[in-house]
Amino acid sequence: MRDFYERILGFPVLRELSQGWIEYQIGPNTLALARPKRLASDQQTPAGSASLQLAFKVSRDDVDRCAAELAEKGVALMEPPTDQPFGHRTLFFRDPDGNLFEVYAEI
Questions:
Q1: Are residues 59 and 93 in the same domain?
Q2: Residues 32 and 55 in one domain
Q3: How far, in Å, CA of 92 to CA of 2, rounded?
Q4: d(CA 100, CA 48)
Q5: Could you tell me the pLDDT band of residue 38, with boundaries at 50, 70 and 90?
Q6: Helix H segments across 1-107?
Q7: Where are the beta strands (DSSP E) in 19-99?
Q8: Which residues are registered as beta bridge partners of 16?
Q9: Residue 81 is part of which domain span?
Q10: Structurally, how many domains does the chain consist of?
């Protein structure tokens, strides 16, 4: 998972509190990833479901650039960049744990 967030997505490590908790700096935000042991006692998310969705707003050209970079790094895209009828250009992919990522731009 670290390889995906650090090498593939390029998120810089902010701090690591333990082997089960790491924080990444994403602009002015912090993304904390934790192993679901201390607080999460629910069942594992079924395959194909979104246990979490993170959306990142970028410029229109960056949607296509992100798609190309991810594909080059071997990340399976759920579909190519697509202009949606609700006014967004979107790109969807999953991390190794199945969390859903969206990169989008207003069009």
A1: yes
A2: no
A3: 20
A4: 10
A5: low
A6: 2-3, 60-72
A7: 21-26, 29-34, 53-57, 77-83, 88-94
A8: 22
A9: 50-107
A10: 2
Q: Which residues sit opposite 38 in a β-bridge? A: none
Query: How many residues are given for the chain?
Result: 107
Give tens-digit pLDDT for 39-83.
555 566 666 665 678 899 999 999 999 999 999 999 999 999 999
Per the CB < 8 A criterion, the answer to whether 80 and 92 are in contact is: no
Distance CA 91, CA 60 (A): 11
d(CA 45, CA 61): 33
Question: 2 near 95, Cβ under 8 Å?
Answer: no
Against a cut of 0.85, is the pTM above it? no
Q: What count of Cα atoms within 13 Å lies in the side-chain half-sphere of residue 24? A: 15
